[in-house]
Design goal:
By secondary structure, the chain is mostly helical. The chain folds into two domains: about 80 residues, Orthogonal Bundle (Rna Polymerase Sigma Factor, Chain: A); about 45 residues, Arc Repressor Mutant, subunit A (Orthogonal Bundle), CATH 1.10.10.10. The chain has eight helices and no strands. Helix 2 packs across helix 3 and helix 6 packs across helix 8. The protein is elongated and about 85 Å long. The mean pLDDT is about 85.
């Protein structure tokens, strides 16, 4: 197949490819970019197309693979990699940014309820809230995992009783 014949045949597939690109991206600008990338790759690798193969299927495969590769590249680019010691950037405290005074008051009430607990219950519960695993809490406090689980369970029960207004 000559280059002219090849170009003529792939331009005949434009409408089908446009619909497929839009179905993949759901955005007209992205679909046009994907279509352009597909044509560029098809023209670049024209010699890899075998004459008796299905040209339409070949073009759709190029488009689908281009879309998948672009998607994976975008996901990887948006991934936050924190190479600092102790994951400093990921563990930075975030500002709660309460939208109204009621949210701030509710948070203060919950924190006061937790603070009023006995240390035997408060310490494992606050460690659990901070993201420690049961095993880590048990090792730090030198108690069994079962004790940690039961203390956290009973702390939840006590807090639910104290904070019935929030139910």
């Amino acid at each position: 197949m000559t280059a002219l014949e090849f170009n003529y045949q792939i331009t005949g597939l434009k409408k089908n490819l446009e619909y497929f690109a839009y179905s993949l991206t759901a955005n007209q600008d992205d679909a046009n970019d994907l279509l352009q990338d597909t044509y560029l790759k098809a023209l670049t690798y024209r010699e890899k197309f075998v004459k008796d193969d299905n040209l339409k299927a070949w073009m759709f495969t190029i488009m689908k693979n281009t879309f998948i590769n672009n998607y994976r590249r975008n996901v990887k680019a948006n991934t936050i990699i924190d190479g600092t010691k102790d994951l400093y950037y990921l563990n930075l405290p975030r500002d709660a940014g309460f939208a109204d005074p009621v949210s701030s008051a509710n948070t203060r009430d919950i924190e006061q309820a937790i603070a009023s607990l006995d240390d035997d219950y408060k310490i494992p519960f606050t460690m659990h809230l901070k993201g420690f695993k049961y095993k880590e809490i048990a090792e730090k406090l030198d108690i069994s995992i079962g004790t940690v689980k039961s203390r956290i369970f009973f702390t939840r029960k006590k807090l639910m009783a104290k904070l019935q207004d929030f139910a």
